[in-house]
Design goal:
Layout (H helix, E strand, L loop, with lengths): L1 H9 L3 H21 L8 H18 L3 H30 L1 H25 L7 H20 L4 H29 L6 H28 L1
Helix pairs in contact: 1-7, 2-4, 2-8, 3-4, 4-5, 4-8, 5-7, 5-8, 6-7, 7-8
Organism: Pullulanibacillus camelliae
Protein name: Membrane protein
GO cellular component, one term: plasma membrane
């Protein structure tokens, strides 16, 4: 028990983590900007590359130099593949609404992360539920492609997505606070946090978009 306490209290290089997250978000933003110059036919192959890189990072997470290199490459490609969705919402809702959604995302994410860190409550029990919920989200998203659903159903789906990624934020920061982490873990942690932010942002945009249609 004493060893566990020492590990969880001493191995928390938060300054390096947030510096890496900030730099990663800058790289993703550059990718998002560059996305406007990418031919439409390349977005699907890039999405496949993004998924492959995510799995590669899981296996390479203990190699510090490789981890950071892959982290920035993943962020760049993710920014590129994010462009069609952001472009669609900017044209459908307006740039001001998208910026407002980004602000809501920042507040929701920041507040949830701070609560998990300051309260030190253990939310690790959410792991299995969140994983199953993400699979359910994916299945429901695929079904919506083939079977049209009502605006109410889309609103519930979007709200469920927001709920799930707020839960993932609690889960991820709870693990960091209780388990601790080392420098070598940072690239994979940054990618996990980035995915929490991006998915939360996209589901908030989807929620606003459905409300707008109604």
């Amino acid at each position: 028990m004493m060893n566990e306490t020492v590990v969880s209290s001493s191995h928390k290089p938060y300054a390096k983590l947030f510096a890496a997250l900030f730099s990663g978000l800058i790289v993703a933003t550059i990718g998002l900007y560059a996305g406007q110059f990418v031919p439409r036919a390349l977005f699907f192959p890039l999405a496949i590359v993004e998924i492959i890189m995510l799995f590669m990072m899981i296996f390479a997470r203990k190699r510090k130099s490789m981890g950071y290199l892959m982290m920035y490459a993943f962020m760049l490609i993710s920014g590129l593949t994010l462009y069609p969705a952001i472009s669609y919402y900017v044209s459908a809702l307006g740039a001001d609404v998208v910026l407002r959604a980004a602000g809501i995302t920042a507040i929701a994410f920041g507040g949830t992360a701070l609560y998990a860190v300051i309260s030190k409550r253990d939310f690790r029990f959410l792991g299995s539920f969140l994983f199953i919920s993400v699979l359910a989200l994916l299945a429901m998203g695929i079904l919506q492609i083939f079977f049209p659903v009502s605006g109410t159903a889309q609103l519930i789906y979007s709200a469920f997505g927001i709920f799930i990624f707020i839960g993932y934020t609690l889960y991820d920061f709870s693990r960091l606070t209780i388990n601790g982490f080392t420098d070598r873990d940072i690239p994979m942690i940054v990618v996990s946090i980035y995915l929490d932010i991006v998915n939360l942002f996209l589901y908030i945009l989807r929620f606003i978009g459905v409300l707008n249609d109604d």
